[in-house]
Predict the 3D structure of the following.
Amino acid sequence: MSSTVEASMYNSIQAILRQAASSCNKGMLRWTLHKKVETHPSNSVSLVRVLVKELEKVERLDYKMHVIPLLHTLNYVIIQQSGHIPCNLFQRVYECFKRLLTLPEPYCTIALRYMRSIKMEQITPGALYQRRVIAEQSLRNIHFPQQEKVFVFADPAVFSGSLWQTVRADLVLASPQSDTLARRVLLHTLQAGLEKACHGPILTQALEDLGEDVEQYFQEVVLAVEQSIENGEAGRDQYQTRLQHIYSDILTSANQDPKARGSLSNTPLPSPEIHFHLWTNEEELWNELVNFTLNVSTSERNSMYQEEAEEDVSKRVSLLSVDSGIDKDLSDMEEREQRNPFTRSQSPCFRGRMKPEDKMALVQENIKGPTSSTPLPKEEGNRTARIVMMGDDRVLGRLAKVYHSIRKREAKHLILTKRVNLQIYYIPITDEPIVNSPESTSQVGDRLSLASFLGRVDPWYESNINSLGAMIPKLAGTQSSHSRSSEPNHFLVDVLSYYLRCGLQPVHFTLYSVKISVSGQTGSPVDEVFVSHLDAEFPEFKTLRENLRQERSSRRRTRKTHGTCGAVVSVNYSKVSLSKQEVVQGMSVMTCGVVISAISPNETEGLDFLTVNFDSTNPRCCTEIRTQNIKIRILEDKTFTVCLDKDCRRKYTHVQSIEISPCLDPGYCLQTSSKFSVGEEREAGLSKYMCKILPLPINTFTGINH
């Protein structure tokens, strides 16, 4: 039986690794494989054996292209089903990861992170699962303060009414019920720690019979896990002894045999709690981050008050005396909700339009707390906000603008950055047909240039995430057929959960600042930011430019010489030489349009330069330059139109000139421009070690090694 299962797992892995398989099929095969293990946990042992053998083969044959899929697949199985994996197989996995540390980046970095997780799971079985669920579901406790929130922002330009409702239902409604999460954590941790000394079905029934009395056992198990992690290998026996006591107490309280032994119950890893937004207002992202920070402040105060109360009660951990830290006249229902550790953290929300300075003042007030005599815990960075963008280049362009705005606010206050770790993810989807032509990266109609680049640098991202771009639009069309079934479709939320948990290697896209001078406008130019694309078009030559594009797309060249090739513009740009010295060059060009791209068609060339193409019917005027800084100014009594990141919502008309340069980090600008006192001069000198350019980090499975 075991050999049959192992052969099936081997065939599945080989199908995923096979180069001839399409990216879409690889992603579906990966999902099917994990669902098999989730449904039949006993198969996890066979799958782990196969994956370890394949990794050992990679070491011998130097098949580096297989390392990333094997590493992520193996780690995800261990998170899901660690309780079914024997100790000797765990040690074999650990030794295999250890040998991978000799590989170059990013393989060694990923192997090191997973090796540490394996070691922690060896010493404290059940820790990975428990910490994951507590953080993702924001389960209140005083021993493990990590909290995570997942915010999905969908671009309304791409998501129609039926599509966004379908996607929202698949993501939000798939979240598990909060009252079952603590029981699930207890069940998994006790089974992983006690193994054969635990009876899963009896324990499941006992936890259900206890009802709200499960709270105290949940807190005890969280404390036992965290103390075991802190003590290391020396505390392993004590950890198992404590779990045995908790197990016996639970069965005794539920009138069950405390010495029951038997089979284990299945405890699938629940999907994270997901907050879905149709991103109509750019301030919504900022508001969610501020709400999350306010929630953190309230939660930390509650934990602090709870620790003080526990000094006067029995050693058994409980949550019977918690001051909510807010108004005293709460209703009974609200009091019960505040005292329930399984209830997800609540926070005040900004329903109206508040000024940014008012929101920041409210954040500062909540962080300081009600009195200055009781300081807050010094823990910082224990909260993670995972931002998932759904759309095409346009949604990442809007994100770049908001991200720059957030960094600008943080350069002055530094509150969110200290308390919330921001992680950004991207699921590409567009409302236009995907163009597969060689010239697609330079066409305005191709709005997936960023996704294409990510797919080239990370094939595992291409297989699991880029493949969703063709699947998601079909969800609305199949909504009626799914509605007839009582079983919801978990494919999308499963893939998103996998991406959030394993996609931790960022690709840094350089942001570019553009100063736009508009005709008739007094004062400073308009400051904007773009991440992928800027298109400048001259209205008088729009028809001429469209004809030129049609000629290029059909790969035919006309011999007809047009009388007018376009408008005359002055171009000043800096050319970086091999010695890193900037050489300023200037020229005049007659053009009917300018396309500036920050995404290179070749992933080996990096993301630190712009490719500027001048469209013209005259071949001598069809110039292409590469630069980081450029200024374009029209010399005639005309104006042009500027469109950022292929988004018509970010279009400027009657433009006379544009000036583009890499976007400086607002924190760096503040350091270099501030006036420091004598005692702070040395600290100001640290600005030369700071990163000058502000990047937009998008998480992938592989990342880019700089």
